[in-house]
Amino acid sequence: MMDKQELKDLKKLVRNPSSKENKSECNRCMTCCAKGGPALHQADKHLIESGKLNGRFLYTIRKGEPAQDNVKGGLIHTDTDIIKIKSKETSDICLYADINNSSCSIYNDRPLECRVLKCWDTREIEDLYQKERLTRQDIIGHIEGLSDLVEEHQEKCSFQRIIQLLESNSGKLEGGALSELLEIVQFDISIRKLVVEKTGTDKAYLPFLFGIPLQNILKKLGIELKKRNPDQERSDIQG
Ligand code: SF4
After folding, report:
1. CA distance 129 to 133
2. pTM score, two decimals?
3. How far is CA 86 from the centre of its chain?
4. Helical packing angle, 146-156 and 175-199, nearest 10°
5. How confident is the model at residue 117 (pLDDT cuts 50, 70, 90)?
6. What is the domain partition of the chain in residue ranges?
7. With a 6 A CB cut-off, is 106 part of the ligand 1 pocket?
8. CA 54 from centroid of its chain's CA atoms
9. Which tens digits make up the pLDDT trace of 47-61?
C-alpha cells in the first residue's frame, strides 16, 4: 500500500504534528489510496467469497517474486503470495478510489489494511502488514483443475529457478540458461492463453491467477524479450 519513503513521511508527521493538522480520525484525505491498493489478508477472504471484491480487480505478487519491502525497505523475495487490489491504469491510485470526490467505492467493505491504516500513526499497519496474508490457494484451492494449473505454473515458473538462471554464468545470459529461461517465459505466455481460450476466462483475471506476466517482470529487471519474427512465438532475450 505504501512504500518506504511514504511510511517515513507519515512517521515524520507523527513526530511533527504541527506540520499538518493533528489528526485523530480518517477524514478520507485519500493520500493512502493514491499510493496503491492494499494487500489482502485472511480477514478479507469473505469479501471475495461474497463477491464484494472481484478477482478481476486483483493481482498477485507470486511467492518468491522480488518485491519492494514496504516497511523495511529494499528488495525481498516474498515468502508467500501477496494479493493486492490493482491500481488505475498509468497511476498508482487504487482502482476503487475516486480522488476528486474523496471517496472509496467499497468504503464500507474496504479491506483490513485500509481499515487499520491511520496516516497519523503507522504502528498498527506496520504490525499487521506481513501477517496472515491471503494466498491464491485460499481462494481457488477448491476449484479442481484451476487450482492445479496455478500450482503447475508456480512450479514451472519458479522465481527461485529464474533467479538462479539470471545469476548463472556471472549474470551473462547464454547457452542452456538462456534456453531454459525462454522455455519458462514461453510456458507463462502459453498457460495464460490456454486458460482464456479453453475456459473463456476473462483476461482481467490472469494477473490474479498467474501474477504479473514474466516478460513484464524481466523487463523491470532490465531484460527485454524480442520476437525474431511475427510468426515465431519464441523470442530472443536481450540483457
Ligand atoms: S480500497 Fe478504498 S480505502 Fe482502500 S486503498 Fe482503495 S480506495 Fe482507499
Report:
1. 8
2. 0.83
3. 8
4. 170
5. confident
6. 4-136, 142-238
7. yes
8. 15
9. 999 999 999 999 999
57 lines ligand 1 (CB under 6 A): no
All three cell numbers of 155:
512450479
Ligand 1 atom having least distance to the Cα of 114: 4
Kindly state the cell numbers that stand for 202. Answer: 476473462
- H or E element in which residue 235 lies: strand 235-238
Residue pLDDT, tens place only, 139-183: 999 998 999 999 999 999 999 999 999 888 777 778 889 999 999
SS3 of 195, please? helix
Cβ–ligand 1 distance for 58 under 6 Å, the answer no
What's the CA gap between 153 and 148, in Å, rounded?
9
Q: What letter represents residue 166's amino acid?
A: L
User: What are the percentages of helix, strand and coil residues in the chain, rounded to 5?
Assistant: 45, 15, 40
In angstroms, the CA 9 to CA 199 distance is 46
